[in-house]
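Both lines are given unchanged directly below:

***
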Amino acid sequence: QFLQSAGITSSHDDLYTIKDYILSRDVLTIIDNNLGLRKKFSSPSIDFLDRFGIVGNNTFEDFFLYYKDRVSIEIDTNSSICILQVKAYSPTLAHDMNEALLFLGEGLVNAINERARQDLIQFASNDVKEAEGEAKAAALTLSRYRNRQTLFDPKQESTIQLQQVSQLQRLLIEARSHLAQIRISAPDSPYIKVLELRMENLKREINAETGKVTGGKESIVGKMTEYERLTLERDFTDKRLSATLASLEEAKSQANRQQLYLGRIVQPNIPDQAFYPKRVRNIALIFFGGLLAYGVLRLLQIGVEEHRD
């Protein structure tokens, strides 16, 4: 019986995951289909005591128990290194089994890496799509409100309106000053009526322009409340979109760095000497065991004979 060992290193939790996977029915099915383990372990060239299926138990569960007796994994939690040992009845089969199990373990780690990578990017991509939708909706709502209210920037428009009010007030002050001068210099001048009419018109224009700025819901001030709310919402969604895009780039960068790893520190090789059976040890154990049994039986026999006497 040939013993084949290989050393692998990975993170602490990964080693237990790999161990459970290698000692699973799925792995046994894969390597049995590829290496023909059941047929090789049932070969007549194997000692009948170690051969699989010699007593008629040849179900898959029986073979799985047989497989677990010939594959072992010892984990050193301090160094995060585990030793994979395979027992087989030919050096080539021992090597092939070890190589196949390491290959499947690496495949498991790669699959876990890829799944974690895809999940990380997918979650970040979903956040970006959601943020994009919210940003587009906020921008469209603001644009529709501008079109409906026929305004571009309420602050700028209110500034323009206030400038017009200021100019009208300046004209009103000039007209009032001019009227006062005429009343003093020419109280009977017909131009007084003209100035008074002009002052009334200026007052109406000032009230109208002021109403456009500080009037009811249709005034600029009334429109500004909703405009500022929509603008704030748009700015918030834009910032959220920028944050999710940055998170997506970070997720891609992190995904490109492998989170799990499996490194071989001892490669499988083809053994050139059988490790089992240990013939000298077995013969010595049988000899001394038989001698001990003979001694016990002899003592029992002597005790029985003495009891009869």
Observations:
- The chain has nine helices and four strands.
